[in-house]
Amino acid sequence: MKHNESTVHPHKEFHHGSSATTAEAQTLIAGTLEHTTEALHHLRARFDAAQEHFADMYENANKKVVSGAKITDAAIHEHPYLSLAIAFKVGLILGALGVLATRRRK
What we know:
By secondary structure, this protein is mainly α. It is 90% helix and 0% strand. The chain is built from two helices and no strands.
């Protein structure tokens, strides 16, 4: 059997094909990694902006609650008996509504 020099050996062909496939895979991974990194930076920027926005909202709500509590405290100290009467009436009304709701369910 004669050995022809121009004959391509299967292992060399496989090596060349696998090298090309590896190069294509590396190019694809590099592009994907770059896109993923960019997307993560964008996502992080959006998260930071949302976190800052919610922190501002929390601070504003906290100020309003504290202000309301101070006003309520001052009103209760100025008119303690009236405040007690109002609290009693509100409790009485809520209790009556609760009893009515319970009776209707039966």
